[in-house]
Design a protein that fits this description.
The complex is a heterodimer.
Chain A (H helix, E strand, L loop, with lengths): L1 H27 L6 E2 L2 E2 L2 E7 L5 H19 L1 E7 L5 H8 L4 E4 L1 H11 L2 E8 L5 E2 L1 E6 L14 E4 L5 H13 L5 H4 L2 E4 L3 H9 L5 E5 H10 L2 H5 E6 L3 E2 L2 E4 L5 H12 L5 H10 L1 E6 L6 H10 L12
Parallel strand pairs in A: 3-4, 3-5, 9-10, 9-11
Antiparallel strand pairs in A: 1-2, 5-14, 6-14, 6-15, 7-13, 8-11, 8-12
Chain B lengths: L1 H62 L8 H21 L3 H26 L4 H88 L13 H61 L4 H28 L7 E3 L1 H13 L14 E7 L7 E3 L1 H18 L3 E10 L4 E8 L6 H6 L15 H11 L3 E7 L3 E9 L3 E2 L2 E2 L1
Parallel strand pairs in B: 2-4
Antiparallel strand pairs in B: 1-3, 4-5, 5-7, 6-7, 8-9
Helix pairs in contact in B: 1-2, 1-4, 2-3, 3-4, 4-5, 5-6, 7-8, 8-10
Classes of the chains: A alpha/beta, B alpha+beta.
Chain lengths: ~300, ~500
C-alpha cells in the first residue's frame, strides 16, 4: 500500500533525524561535561599524584590545593593517589586521568610517551622551583665512595624518578659500577623519597637516594636526618613537580587551570593554600624546562620513548 | 496574726518556688544524665567503630597481593575512615590523662598509617616485602589491642557512669514522687491549721457578740486568743465595759433628768407662794415693832427664803435653760469683765481695802482669737462660775491663768487653770453631775449648768485635775453657731 509505505518512510526519517541529533549533541559536549534537561553540571577533573611522601600525607598535602582549584575553575577535582611513580604513566590512560603532578622524570616520560602538556610548577618558599637528587649514607656507615658501597644495601625510590633512580644510575656509570644488581647485596624501591631517607637513617638500608626538597622537609621535623646522614653525590637541578594535562583536554579548561595556578599568589585564600602547600607561587612551565632531565637521561643512555619504568 | 499569715504565705511561696525550682533542676539533671548516657553510648559506639575500621584495614592488608586484593583507592578510603574515627575519638576528651593516652594512641595510628603506605609503595625482594607487611600488620594488631584495651577500660567506666546516671535518675524520680505526694499534703495541713486557728477565734468573738446582743453586758471573752484576735478580744471586752458604763450613765442621766424636771416643776410651783411668803415676812419685819432677837429671826427667815429662791433659780436654769440669743462676741472683753466681776468676791467685807486671798490672775490671750457668735449673758455666766470656783479652790495664795487660743477646726478654746487643791479622780468623774458638790453650802448645780449652757452653744467642756496641784477647765466653742440650719 502506498500510504503505509509513506508512513514508514516518515518514521524512518524521524528516527534518522533523532539519531543525528543525539550524535551531534554528544560531539559538541566536552568529554567530562554533562548537560541534562538544559542544566549544566560542573566539569569533572581527575588529577593523579605521585608519592613523594607516604600515600596519605601526599594526598592530604594536595587536598587544599585541589579544593581551591575546584572553586576557581568551577570543576570537581578528584585526586587519585598512585602507589608507584610509574603508575602515573600507566594510569593516565587506564584510569582516565586528566592531569597529574608529575615528578621531573615522570614528567619527561609523560611528555615523550603521552605528549602531556606541562602548565605550572611551584616555586618553593626559598625561591627555588627546581630540585636535585642526593645519594646519602649514614655518617657512621664507613661509606665514602662507590668502592665502599660494594656489598651494601641500596634503597632506590622508583625507576621513574630522577633523584631516586637517574642520579644513582648516573653515579654508578661514572664510578664504573656496571651491574648494580650484583654490586650491591640488596637493592629495592621504597616507593617514596621519605621512606628512602628513613630506611637509611634507621639502618634498613646502607645507601639511599632521594630528592633534596623531601630531604629538607623531613629534616625540619626530624633533626637526626641532618645529624646522622651524609650526602655523597647530587644530581643536576631539574624542574619541581609540575602539573601537566592530557593533550586533548579542553582549551578553556586548560587555560582556566593554568590561570588559577599562576594567579594563586594574588588572592588571600590562594596565598594561604600556597603557604600550607609549602610554596610561594606557581610559575609557568613548558616542555623546555625538562631539558636537564632529557640531557641527564641521555648521559645515562636512556631512550625515554622506549624506557621500561617498571621496577624489578 | 499578720506575721503568721505572712510567714504562711512565705512558706507557700517558698514551697511553690522551691518545689518548682527543684522540679526544674531535677528535670534538667535527668536530661543531663540522659544526655550523658547517650554521649557515653556514642563514645562506646565510636570506639567500636574505630575498632571495626582498624580491622577492615588489617583485612585489606592481609588481602594485599592476593587475588581478592582491593584496588588502592578503596584501601586509601578505608585508612582515611580509620584516621577520621581516631580523630573523632581524640576530639571527645579533655581529661589530661586520657588526652595523653589518646595522643599516644594517635601517634601509634600515624605510625601504622606510614607502615601501611610503605607496604603499598615498596618494591623489594620477597623477604623485605614480607617483613614490611608483617611490621605493618603487627603495628595494626598492637593498635587494635590498644583500642580494645581502651574499649574495655572505657566500657567499664561507661558502665559505671551509666549506673550512676541511672541511679541519679531513679533518685530524682523518687524525690519527684515524694514532692508530688507530700507537697499537697503539706499545703492542706498548713491551710487546715490556719483555718482552725482563725475560726476558733472568730467563733469565740461571735459567741461574745451574741451574749452582748442578748443583754448580758457583764459577759467578757475569757479565752486567751492568739495574736491579733487577743487584741480584738480585749477591745471587745473594753467595748462591753464601756457599754455597761454608758448604760449606767444613761440610766442615771435619765433619772436625773426626771428628777430635774420634777424639781423644776416643783420650783416653779413653789416660787410664787415663796415670793408671797418672802414679801409678807419683809412687810412684817418692817412694820412690826420687834425685839432685836425677833428681828434677827425674821432676817434669818428671809435669808433662807433667798437661799431657797437661788436654789429654785438654779434648778430652773438647769432644767429649762433659756434659748441662747446669739450675737458676735469678743471673748477677751467678756473675760476681762468676768475677771473684774469675780475679783469683787475677793474683797474683805470687813476691810474693803484688803483682799481675802492673794491671787494673781494671768491672762494668756491669743491675739489671733476671732470673735465668736454666742449668747453673751450665758457665756459670761459660765466664765463667772468657773472663775468663782477657781477662787474658791485656792486656799490663800495662788494663780489663776486664763488662756485663749484659736483651734484649727474653726473653734476656739478657753482654759481656766487654778493652782488650788485639785480633785481626786473620783470627784473629777462626777463633777458635771447635777447636785454633786464638794462645797459645804453648794447646790451642786453650777458646773452642771455650765455644761448645759456650753452644750447649748454646740461646744464642749472638760476638766483635768491633779490633787494638790490644781485644776484646769477647757471650754471649746465654735466660731459660728448653727441654729436651725442658719449659720450665725
Amino acid at each position: 500500500m502506498p500510504g503505509k509505505s509513506y508512513q514508514n518512510s516518515i518514521i524512518l526519517f524521524a528516527l534518522c533525524l533523532f539519531f543525528l541529533f543525539v550524535t551531534g549533541c554528544g560531539e559538541q559536549q566536552d568529554s567530562k561535561t554533562s548537560n541534562v534537561s538544559g542544566k549544566t553540571h560542573p566539569e569533572q577533573l581527575k588529577i593523579g599524584l605521585i608519592t613523594e611522601h607516604d600515600i596519605f600525607s601526599q594526598k592530604k598535602r594536595y587536598e587544599p590545593l585541589a579544593a581551591y582549584l575546584s572553586r576557581k575553575i568551577e570543576a570537581n577535582i578528584e585526586l587519585s593517589i598512585l602507589s608507584r611513580y610509574g603508575n602515573v604513566i600507566d594510569n593516565f590512560v587506564s584510569n582516565g586521568l586528566d592531569a597529574a603532578f608529575f615528578g621531573s622524570f615522570t614528567g619527561a616520560l609523560a611528555i615523550r610517551k603521552l605528549a602531556v602538556q606541562p602548565l605550572a610548577r611551584p616555586e618553593y618558599l626559598d625561591g627555588t622551583s627546581t630540585y636535585y637528587g642526593m645519594i646519602f649514607v649514614r655518617k657512621d656507615s664507613g661509606i665514602h665512595n662507590a668502592a665502599d658501597m660494594r656489598g651494601k644495601r641500596f634503597a632506590f625510590v622508583d625507576k621513574a624518578t630522577t633523584a631516586g633512580w637517574l642520579l644513582p644510575m648516573h653515579y654508578f656509570k661514572e664510578n664504573g659500577i656496571e651491574d648494580y644488581q650484583t654490586y650491591f647485596s640488596e637493592n629495592y624501591f621504597t616507593g617514596t623519597h621519605e621512606d628512602a631517607i628513613y630506611d637509611v637513617l634507621n639502618g634498613k638500608a646502607d645507601i639511599g637516594a632521594a630528592k633534596n626538597t623531601v630531604f629538607s622537609r623531613v629534616a625540619q621535623t626530624d633533626s637526626k636526618v641532618e645529624e646522622q646522614l651524609q650526602i655523597l653525590a647530587t644530581s643536576p637541578e631539574v624542574p619541581a613537580n609540575a602539573l601537566a594535562v592530557r593533550k586533548d583536554l579542553g582549551e578553556s579548561l586548560k587555560l582556566k587551570l593554568k590561570n588559577a595556578l599562576l594567579q594563586m599568589d594574588q588572592d588571600v585564600e590562594g596565598r594561604q593554600v600556597l603557604h600550607e602547600f609549602g610554596a610561594k607561587r606557581f610559575i609557568p612551565t613548558t616542555e623546555n624546562d625538562y631539558a636537564p632531565v632529557f640531557d641527564y637521561a641521555n648521559k645515562i643512555g636512556l631512550d625515554l620513548a622506549t624506557y621500561d619504568y617498571n621496577n624489578e | 496574726m499578720k506575721k503568721k499569715v505572712f510567714i504562711a504565705l512565705l512558706i507557700l511561696v517558698f514551697c511553690f518556688s522551691g518545689g518548682g525550682m527543684y522540679i526544674a533542676r531535677s528535670i534538667e539533671e535527668v536530661i543531663t544524665n540522659l544526655e550523658n548516657v547517650i554521649t557515653l553510648h556514642q563514645v562506646e559506639f565510636l570506639r567500636k567503630d574505630l575498632q571495626n575500621k582498624i580491622k577492615v584495614v588489617q583485612t585489606d592488608l592481609l588481602l594485599k597481593d592476593s587475588p581478592h586484593a582491593l584496588h588502592i583507592d578503596p584501601f586509601i578510603a578505608h585508612v582515611e575512615e580509620m584516621e577520621t574515627a581516631s580523630h573523632v575519638c581524640s576530639n571527645c576528651h579533655h581529661n589530661e590523662e586520657v588526652s595523653q593516652r589518646l595522643n599516644h594512641f594517635q601517634q601509634q595510628i600515624d605510625s601504622y598509617v606510614k607502615k601501611l603506605s610503605r607496604v603499598y609503595t615498596i618494591r623489594a625482594n620477597k623477604e623485605r616485602l614480607t617483613e614490611e607487611k608483617n611490621a605493618a600488620f603487627s603495628m595494626g594488631e598492637e593498635t587494635l589491642a590498644e583500642v580494645e584495651k581502651i574499649v574495655i577500660t572505657s566500657s567499664e567506666k561507661i558502665s559505671k557512669r551509666i549506673t550512676l546516671a541511672r541511679n541519679s535518675i531513679a533518685e530524682t524520680e523518687h524525690l519527684l514522687f515524694f514532692l508530688i505526694t507530700a507537697g499537697p499534703l503539706l499545703l492542706i495541713l498548713i491551710a487546715y491549721f490556719f483555718l482552725r486557728h482563725f475560726t476558733n477565734s472568730v467563733d469565740a468573738l461571735l459567741d461574745a457578740t451574741r451574749k452582748i446582743q442578748q443583754g448580758d453586758l457583764r459577759y467578757r471573752v475569757q479565752e486567751e486568743l492568739p495574736d491579733e484576735f487577743q487584741v480584738l478580744s480585749k477591745a471587745f471586752n473594753d467595748m462591753a465595759s464601756s457599754l455597761k458604763d454608758q448604760c449606767q450613765r444613761m440610766q442615771q442621766t435619765e433619772r436625773l433628768a426626771v428628777v430635774g424636771e420634777l424639781a423644776a416643776g416643783l420650783a416653779h410651783e413653789v416660787k410664787n407662794p415663796l415670793a408671797g411668803i418672802k414679801v409678807s415676812i419683809e412687810v412684817l419685819a418692817s412694820e412690826l415693832t420687834l425685839e432685836q432677837e425677833d428681828r434677827e429671826v425674821f432676817l434669818r427667815i428671809i435669808n433662807e427664803i433667798y437661799r431657797i429662791e437661788t436654789l429654785l433659780k438654779s434648778l430652773l436654769s438647769y432644767a429649762r435653760p433659756p434659748e441662747p440669743e446669739t450675737a458676735p462676741l469678743d471673748l477677751h472683753e467678756l473675760l476681762d469683765l468676768t475677771i473684774k466681776s469675780s475679783s469683787y468676791s475677793l474683797i474683805n467685807p470687813a476691810n474693803t481695802a484688803k483682799m481675802t486671798k492673794e491671787i494673781e490672775i494671768v491672762k494668756d490671750f491669743s491675739p489671733e482669737l476671732p470673735p465668736i457668735t454666742a449668747d453673751r449673758g450665758l457665756i459670761q455666766q459660765v466664765f463667772l462660775n468657773l472663775m468663782l470656783n477657781a477662787i474658791d479652790a485656792i486656799p490663800a495664795k495662788g494663780t489663776i491663768t486664763i488662756t485663749t487660743q484659736k483651734e484649727s477646726n474653726h473653734t476656739v478654746q478657753i482654759s481656766i487653770t487654778d493652782t488650788g487643791k485639785g480633785m481626786n479622780p473620783e470627784n473629777l468623774s462626777k463633777i458635771f453631775n447635777p447636785f454633786f458638790t464638794t462645797k459645804p453650802k453648794g447646790t451642786g448645780l453650777g458646773l452642771a449648768i455650765c455644761k448645759r449652757l456650753i452644750e447649748l452653744h454646740n461646744g464642749s467642756i472638760h476638766v483635768s485635775s491633779t490633787p494638790g496641784e490644781g485644776t484646769t477647765f477647757y471650754i471649746t466653742l465654735p466660731e459660728k453657731q448653727q441654729i436651725q440650719g442658719i449659720t450665725q
